[in-house]
Automatic annotation (TrEMBL):
Highest taxon, organism lineage: Bacteria
Residue ranges annotated for the N-acetyltransferase domain, each copy included: 10-165
GO MF annotation: an example: acyltransferase activity, transferring groups other than amino-acyl groups
Alphabetical keyword list: Transferase
Pfam families according to UniProt: Acetyltransf_1 (PF00583)
The keyword Oxidoreductase is assigned to this record: no
Entries under InterPro entries matching the protein: Acyl_CoA_acyltransferase (IPR016181), GNAT_dom (IPR000182)
SUPFAM superfamilies referenced in this protein's UniProt entry, alphabetically: Acyl-CoA N-acyltransferases (Nat)
Natural source organism: Candidatus Roizmanbacteria bacterium CG22_combo_CG10-13_8_21_14_all_34_12
Taxonomic lineage: Bacteria, Candidatus Roizmaniibacteriota
Protein name (database record): GNAT family N-acetyltransferase
């Protein structure tokens, strides 16, 4: 039985299970997603959903009951009430899944986990994601210049956040 954390009109956010690992790995390696994330091994994902400080979720379409992405939140036990929106990867682009998922993530972070701050980093060249986050109220805080070595070149990350009462 799938354990649901949150749902909306179109999507369900449920806890990731071992049987979802192949979907997660395939989603990460998709050429439309791979340039914008640092992929994890199967073991890293399995370790994440056993870790009480991390929330690893699958995004399912309610109508088709098919998985359309996944999300990772970290810092659930952070004493400063600052949760990291570590990853969102959606397989079906430009269909509103990302926007709806972020809406549910904000609800989970601020209502269920009583966060004061929800933050993320996004590659500087990922303009589509940055616009999506801005449309959801995230504010750019700064840039970590050339902090990530990826494919033998350095990428910079934009830090963005959303505060509970802002």
């Amino acid at each position: 039985m799938k354990k649901i954390l949150e749902k909306s009109k179109r999507i369900i956010l449920r806890f990731t299970e071992n049987k979802d690992i192949d979907f997660v790995i395939k989603t990460e390696s998709n050429p439309h997603n791979a340039p914008f994330i640092v992929p994890w091994t199967k073991q890293q994902h399995k370790d994440a959903f056993l870790n009480k400080d991390i929330l690893h979720l699958i995004v399912d379409d309610k109508l088709t009951n098919k998985s359309v992405g996944y999300v990772i939140l970290a810092g659930l036990k952070n004493p400063n009430h600052s949760i990291e929106f570590m990853r969102i990867v959606i397989t079906k682009k430009k269909k509103g899944y990302g926007q709806e998922t972020i809406g549910l993530i904000k609800k989970i972070a601020f209502e269920k986990f009583k966060a004061h701050r929800l933050w993320l980093d996004v590659k500087v060249k990922n303009h589509i994601a940055q616009r999506l986050y801005e449309s959801q109220g995230f504010i750019k805080e700064g840039v970590l210049r050339e902090c990530l070595l990826s494919n033998n070149k350095y990428d910079s990350l934009v830090i963005m956040s959303l505060l509970k009462n802002k």
